[in-house]
């Protein structure tokens, strides 16, 4: 696939497949094709469009969004704002203190401050990710605690409830968080959450037919 310099070449919807940026602050607007976008250094803004896009925003403080389609969006290094838009998206913040916004589809979200909006979203948190904030939205939203080695009973014991919160309860293979808000402390790290429905440990099937 050919690469184009977005500063020099117009974006043709029927031809463009890959855009590779360079050094400097760039703005790249997508097309209706299924495109790959990759930028380097600089505070970049990369917005896909209606195709199923893959976006790697690179270094520095970037804004990246998938718009419509089933997209994979990675903010890379820096303090980024990364969004999925419509569709079943995988949205990753990368290194740095990032804001992750899912959109209207069933999304997989991995980052620091994560917001699910609509859809049945899955939030992934690993020990070592730091102190993060997670807010679900419409749909059945699930928080997966990866690699912590904790049982459901241990996870339940690590939850501290906000005033007026509902009580969490252990079900067959998850903790019911409907109406629950508060914090989960694992080691020296704390997750603040609200608007979630389920808490599960370890590897979890987050989209039908797909596992992580």
TrEMBL record:
It comes from the Bacteria. The keyword Secreted applies. GO terms for cellular component: extracellular region. The keyword Secreted applies. It is found in: Secreted. Residues 1-34, 58-79 are annotated as: Disordered. This is Calcium-binding protein. Keywords: Secreted. Pfam families: HemolysinCabind. InterPro entries: Hemolysn_Ca-bd, RTX_toxin/Mannuronan_C5-epim, Serralysin-like_metalloprot_C.
């Amino acid at each position: 696939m050919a690469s184009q310099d977005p500063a020099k070449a117009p974006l043709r919807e029927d031809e463009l497949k890959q855009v590779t940026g360079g050094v400097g602050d760039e703005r790249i607007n997508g097309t209706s094709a299924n495109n790959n976008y990759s930028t380097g250094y600089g505070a970049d803004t990369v917005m896909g469009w209606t195709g199923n896009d893959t976006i790697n925003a690179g270094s520095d403080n970037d804004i990246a969004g998938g718009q419509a389609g089933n997209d994979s969006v990675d903010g890379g290094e820096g303090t980024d704002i990364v969004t999925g838009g419509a569709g079943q998206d995988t949205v990753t913040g990368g290194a740095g203190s990032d804001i992750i916004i899912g959109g209207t589809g069933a999304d997989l979200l991995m980052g620091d401050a994560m917001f699910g909006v609509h859809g049945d979203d899955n939030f992934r948190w690993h020990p070592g990710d730091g102190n993060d904030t997670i807010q679900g939205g419409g749909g059945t939203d699930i928080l997966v605690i990866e690699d912590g080695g904790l049982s459901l009973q241990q996870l339940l014991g690590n939850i501290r409830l906000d005033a007026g919160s509902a009580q969490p309860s252990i079900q067959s293979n998850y903790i019911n968080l409907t109406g629950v808000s508060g914090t989960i402390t694992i080691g020296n790290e704390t997750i603040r959450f609200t608007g979630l429905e389920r808490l599960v440990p370890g590897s979890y099937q987050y989209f039908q037919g797909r596992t992580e």
